[in-house]
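Predict the assembly for these two chains.
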Amino acid sequence: MALSQSEVLAGLADIVNDETGIATASVQLDKSFTDDLDIDSISMMTIVVNAEDKFGVKIPDEEVKNLITVGDAVNFITNAQ
Amino acid sequence: MSQPTLNQYQPVQFSKIYSLGAARGDLTVTNDDVAGAIDSSDEWIRQRTGIITRKRASADRSLMDMAVEASNQAIAAAGIDPAEIGAVLFSTITHPFQTPSAAALLAFKIGAMPAPAFDISAACAGYCYGIAQADALVRSGMAKYVLVVGGEKLSDFIDPTDRSISFLLGDGAGAAIVGPSDKPGISPTVWGSDGSHWEAVGMTHSLLEFRDGTASWPTLRQEGQTVFRWAVWEMAKVAQQALDAAGVQASDLAALVTHQANIRIIDELAKQLKIPESVVIARDIVYTGNTSAASVPLAMHALLESGEIKSGGLALQIGFGAGLAFGAQVVVLP
């Protein structure tokens, strides 16, 4: 069953926290991965792979550069389910 | 009159790596030396890649110089006469001639002529490809000893302003002598290619574009995120397949020697494989940089020289890179 946007956000926040130690509360829809959360491209890839696993979706390499904010990622995952 | 049956080589049952040799660039290039051109810093480079310094060769120290030095070390350590070498395999992407091969010249210089000699173009998988080939040549009986060299002068092919890969790269050569053994010394190789990702890492342009004046000197570049994903998650599967093919578990290993691409790749790959604390993980990249085909033999040689690992233990070695190409085997440490 497809998860709601808030469920995807919560799941993604856990993944970000696991990979980077950033508090889940900081992982908000309007935050930019690089500028606000200081997540580099390599950590981003680990987050992407873990999100694919957790949510059962595929996030192609060429799509990753379009995921600028947490909201972009949540929307992509929600729509891909 | 009946047709004669063809003679065949007499196979031998097992092969092993007898010895290693190593040669690095003579210059120690710090992060501060390279950071300016890519608008970065020592801290950023250390954090993103683990590199503190990389070795590069000056104009006076050629790829062939390093290959000869490493080869002579390996030959002396193996205690063989170079005339006994039955084949010379030189894995490299930085020999600056279409032809003749680097291997033919190397064979001449080290006293192995007239052994068959050829270059292997498999980038960072080149040394493991070479070991696979050497294992097959020895066990088939075609060659008694095989010299495998992984050598690069990557600094000849970098754009210092490139942020994708240039600052990672170093120069060096590692050499191995492979020969017959009374016990298994090299496991079945798990190797392959993925040409669907041919664009993921390679050159900025072809030589033809350079010739025609439509591009500058071709240099190395990569799509870092694509390479990272493949190197970790796909290569974790290959590494596990190599362990399975060898009939060993990660806990049986003395060492994990991966291509020294980036410390983040090494660490994440080790995590995916659930490598136990007891296994020494090669991190030669920290002071040597990423030397493509040279990186696995240089890293293994460094661990043995330091005493962190001992002869006779098992090591999983895996190379992966441009092609995309990959190769892995479990070996008994020389």
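Chain B has a mean pLDDT of 98. The longest helix of chain B spans residues 224-246.
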